[in-house]
Amino acid sequence: MNDFKFINGSVTSPLGFTANGVCAGIKAATNATQAAQANEPLLPKSGKRDLAVIYCERPCTAAALFTKNLVKSDTIYLTQAHLANGTAQAVIVNSGNANACNPDGMEKAEAMGRLAAQALGIDENDVIVASTGVIGQALPIEPIEKGVEALKDILSKDGGTNAAEAIMTTDTVKKEWAVQLELSGKTVTIGGIAKGSGMIHINMGTTLSFVTTDAAISAEMLRSALTEAADVSYNMVSVDGDTSTNDTLAIMASGLAGNPEITEKNADYRDFTEALTEAFKAVAKKLAADGEGATKLIIAKVSGAKDESSAKTIAKSVICSSLVKAAMFGADANCGRILCAIGYSGAQTDVKKIDVSYQSAKGGILVCQNGCGLAFDEDKAKEILLENEITIVIKLGDGTAAAEAYGCDLTYDYVKINGDYRT
Asked: Which of 42, 126, 151, 233 is found 20 to 30 A from 202 (Cα to Cα)?
């Protein structure tokens, strides 16, 4: 592996890219329409950025992955069509309204792409369109039109962090990142932003994530690298067991770094994919840690599985268990819930060879050996589980395969947030 490093940066760090985000008032406009129809009082404006544009000075090779939910936002169908030729030059994305399950959803998605293309002077087929927010409410296009007009004049290299803020919904922190590596003697940068807090589940549970790079890489290899990286990172995250209608993970490559174009799975491809994977894993942890109402990041780390599929299946099962998540919230070192989740996962394993331990900044403690619970120091276990990052270490006796999954605890606040999400 050609060493890579994380740097301070965002989606605008790679050569050729600018971005920004503005407060267009999309949620307020949505609420105004709903209130008028229901003859109810108008809710106050949020005042947050809710519309972002990411732009490259030249057409890029591009690829994307999308939700596997059968119910999809029309933005996904439109973006799939736009990316069929493997090129893109811009992203337009809004928060506050998912533009999903609406009779005019495609019309509104097309309008967003057209507005961005006209403002930037590019082909509308080269625009990636995405939305996030409340499902089943009509998307108002007027604030988007005004917002795009404002954005076209303020796109900048410093605008990535504003774009990251604009795609947040119930997120409590912005997710942005950048890494650099050397490919054939050229410095290559990869940067990105992501959002996600709730309605996140394995099975392409990425919510929204937009990635840029100045690497020269073909669309085919870009999609391959994206798929490999997402498979062991974003697709190993679960907050609440719900897969969104809008999940989109898109990447654009400008080629401005000047490296020889990656057109096959050579050493440069492997280095690029490894850097992308490690960056995605870091983001996956941030997404899980910022789960709605969450107080703890939970990592399920499985080793000794007979194959990677079994390791993934078991790690996912543990991280998705509501009982495990609740136990982590209560700092209860209940190994029975871990074993139970392993047992119903569907993966074949020798249950007489399972060891389970908990680890955090406060140390580690073995609570199960050879499939049987152990006597342990409850006070020490509680001290370990009161930390805000906990690793559940599961050692199997079936082989050498390993996997990690990322989740969070289940708290009272999750119910509060989702009990009145629309209001």
From this structure: 126
Dihedral, CA of residue 128, residue 133, residue 137 and residue 141, to nearest 10: -50
Is position 12 annotated as part of the catalytic site? no
Q: Using alpha carbons only, what angle is made at residue 380 by residues 294 and 404, rounded to the nearest 5 degrees?
A: 50
| Whether residues 277 and 330 fall in one domain | no
Instruction: Provide the domain count of the chain.
Output: 2
Distance CA 347, CA 302 (A): 12
Q: Based on the domain organization, do 226 and 301 belong to the same domain?
A: no
pLDDT tens digits for 27-49? 888 765 544 454 444 344 557 89
The residue segments making up the domain with residue 392 are: 297-419
Q: State pTM to two decimals.
A: 0.90
List the CATH number of the domain containing 264: 3.60.70.12
Residue-level pLDDT at 412: 85
Which residues, 6+ apart, have CB-to-CB distance to 86 below 8 Å? Answer: 61, 62, 63, 218, 219, 220, 222, 223
| Per-residue pLDDT tens digits for 223-232 | 999 999 999 9
User: Domain check: are 334 and 281 in the same one?
Assistant: no
Average pLDDT over residues 189-211: 80
Choosing from 30, 206, 243, 273, the catalytic residue is 206
Kindly write down the DSSP assignment for every residue of 25-86, as one continuous string: -HHHHHHHHHHHHHT-PPPPP--S--EEEEEEEEEEEEEEEE---SS--HHHHHHHHHGGGS
> Crossing angle, helix 105-120 and helix 74-82, to 10 degrees?
50
Q: State the Cα–Cα distance between residues 419 and 417, nearest whole angstrom.
A: 6
User: For position 261, what pLDDT does the model report?
Assistant: 98
Q: Are 276 and 320 found together in one domain?
A: no
* 150 and 200 fall within a common domain: yes
Report DSSP state, residue 283.
Answer: H
Instruction: Provide Rg for the chain, Cα atoms.
Output: 22
How many residues make up the chain in this entry?
A: 423
Residues 299-316 have a mean pLDDT of 97
Same domain, 304 and 401: yes
Q: How far is CA 224 from the centre of its chain?
A: 18
Angle, helix 322-329 to helix 335-343, in steps of 10 degrees: 160
